[in-house]
Amino acid sequence: MVAADLKHEVLLAGGGEVSGLADMLHQFLSQILDEYPAKSRLARRISGRMLFRAAEDEAICVKLSFDAGTIEIRDHAGARGGMPSLTADFLTTAHLTTGEESPFALVSRRKMRVRCAPWHAPFLVRVLRLMRIPPRPEIARARRLRWALLVVATAAAAGVAWWLLAR
Amino acid sequence: MSDVYSDAWYDDLKRMIHGSAEFAAKAPTKPMVMTLEITGDDRSPYVGAGDARYYLLVLDGGVVTELNALDSKHDGKGLNFRFTAAATVWEEIAAGLLDPITAGLRGKIRIRGDMRFLMQNADAVKILVDLYASQIDTEWPLGAPPYS
């Protein structure tokens, strides 16, 4: 029995005749939504449509339609039609999904191209959060430790500064 | 130089993987198990229509621990990925005529498996397919692609 807020469906339109990009996105999204309940909850809060284009061959383009927990993936040909779009190559997409690189860094280095109206930005940010694979436990622990050390070091520096000023 | 699909050709591939410092640096720490499935078509002179070849490749810490021909399709247990494509596609890749990543994105190579693992090890997978694509000196005794 799946809790109501975890229900999701990832649909691949086009049967066996789909592009590899659509097929891989379908497997990827199905797998992370099945594995991580938080992703499933996030998917239920996303509504909208976007295009995902392969930089290696811009004719390979996939439309992702999000509707309250249902994600439909289908190959897309033709104009953008006002939909937001992301264009990235395979490695950039991988680095984006694993959190190895931030989307802002990728955009600034022109490894990823984004075309969207300003009001699409929150939707795109939610989609990118959805597609990001949570770090492995040991990496998450190391990140938490780094943050804790940074906080302790900052507090210690502030304490020393305050003590010096107070003398 | 060795004949395409021969044992010597796969030994060359294994040697190249072992000789790649770039792959050693990016290789996943846990084992990566995959099958390569070559389905025959009516264009390849090496794997005919209705025929197929299956290979099991196991990498552990950047080292090839297994690269074997299988008698039949792998049942999928313990596999991270299954790469399936027509013989002509694999041969065009081996001849450097077709980019393997683009072939995968177009759906000429079907990839089944743990996409999270694929994304986490995309650099290593890219190096592997690039090695397959461009660095083996291949003999084509029955003719080289592109086929007419």
Characterize the structure shown.
- The complex is a heterodimer of chains A (167) and B (148).
- The N and C termini of chain A lie far apart (65 Å).
- In chain A, helix 1 packs across helix 2.
- With 167 residues, chain A is α/β, with parallel strands linked by helices.
- Chain A has a 6-stranded mixed β-sheet with strand order 1-4-3-2-5-6.
- The mean pLDDT of chain B is 92.
- With 148 residues, chain B is of the alpha/beta class.
- The chains are: A alpha/beta (167), B alpha/beta (148).
CATH homologous superfamily placement of chain B? SCP2 sterol-binding domain
In DSSP terms (H or I, runs of 4 or more residues), the helix count of chain B works out at 6
Number of folding domains of chain B?
A: 1
CATH superfamily grouping of the largest domain in chain A = SCP2 sterol-binding domain
Distance between the termini of chain B: 24 Å
**Assembly annotation:** heterodimer
Order of helices and strands of chain A: EHHEEEEHHEHH
Number of domains of chain A: 2
| Helix residue percentage of chain A | 40-55%
User: What's the CATH architecture name of chain B?
Assistant: 2-Layer Sandwich
Element-level helix/strand string of chain B: EHHEEEEHHEHHE
- CATH architectural designation of the largest domain in chain A: 2-Layer Sandwich
Largest sheet composition of chain B: 5 strands, mixed
For the secondary structure, the number of strands of chain A is 6
CATH level 1 class label of the largest domain in chain A:
Alpha Beta
Span between termini of chain A: 65 Å
CATH domain topology of chain B: Nonspecific Lipid-transfer Protein, Chain A
Give the structure's gist in a few sentences.
With 167 residues, chain A is α/β, with parallel strands linked by helices. Chain A has helices at residues 20-35, 37-44, 90-98, 103-108, 121-131, 137-166; strands spanning 9-12, 47-54, 61-67, 70-75, 85-88, 112-115.
